[in-house]
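Listing S7. Sequence submitted for prediction.
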Amino acid sequence: MFLRNLVCATALTLCCMMGITQAQEGKLGHAMPQEHPQAGSMDKFIELVGQYTDGRVKLKAFPGGVLGGDDKMMQSAQTGTLEVFYGAVQPVSGRVKEYQIFDFPFLFNTMKEVDYVFYGPLGEKLNKLMEPLNLIPLGWGEAGFRHLSNSRRAIKSVNDLNGLKIRVMQNTVALETWKAMGANAVPMSYAEVFTALENKTLDGQENPLIHMYANKMQEVQKYITLTGHVYTPCVLAVNSKFWEKIKPEDQAAMRKAAAEAFKFHRKSMTAADADVIAKLEQGGVKVEPLPPEELAKIRGLVKPVIDKFIPVVGEEFAKEFFAEIEKARNGASRPGAE
């Protein structure tokens, strides 16, 4: 035993003298299946991290929610049992009130508006708000704009929503939004949704199109209505203690890898969006936009919900957020944005 300890200590000393450091290894968890563009983007990030740090940081992907849903993985990243997390920001909203603004319906109209916000001072503010949770954001991606699917009828007007049992995200804003639209809103863990749709205990759900296809919603849904009612941002975040173990130059390399991976992600998502509607229709789903005049009626119905929750996220924060979006709508641009 003494000889073994002596050999280990000698080897460690030699490594230190030669400037050799042990690689920092960690798990990267996310909820999407391998068929989803998100999986390819996270694989790209891991590849670039290894390349840009010369192997001093090694990450391994755990896709498909094998480490739990977004909420569980974010909690694991906070405690350090998971080193890196990528997923929707909704789990943060219960801990940081400002993040509830992403539950507001019809917040963004285009990706140009999204990029203008996240590449500006508000993006930095959102990063800082996450740090007290022991999470260091490296970059922002997206699951995309959410749309409605159901198995009962095509949605031609706002009245067609009445009484539909729709699974919604487990937060108060989403619940009140869908109630305001006239639907029977049912908060439920996403892991239970497919079975509930298959058994007809739910009529529908709402998610980005790519997410629907990757999770085989075409097998249990007949109609998709293009509403674009909520934009779902995602964050790539590192546990703060794991981050502190990484040298500053490798931290910079990881940020560079994240920036490039998210450019890759945007291209992958754009390409997937271009053909996913055809794939859904091939699966027997009828995909249609909601008429503009009906969409305008829905916006009117949900405005009181937005007004109600503005004080919750903070009136000054909401005012700043809406002002940034308005700048983008008026043609403003900034470096880094698409």
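Caption to Listing S7: primary sequence and predicted structure tokens for the chain studied. The beta strands are 24-29, 57-62, 84-88, 135-150, 165-168, 184-187, 204-207, 223-239, 286-289. Confidence is low (pLDDT under 50) at residues 6-19.
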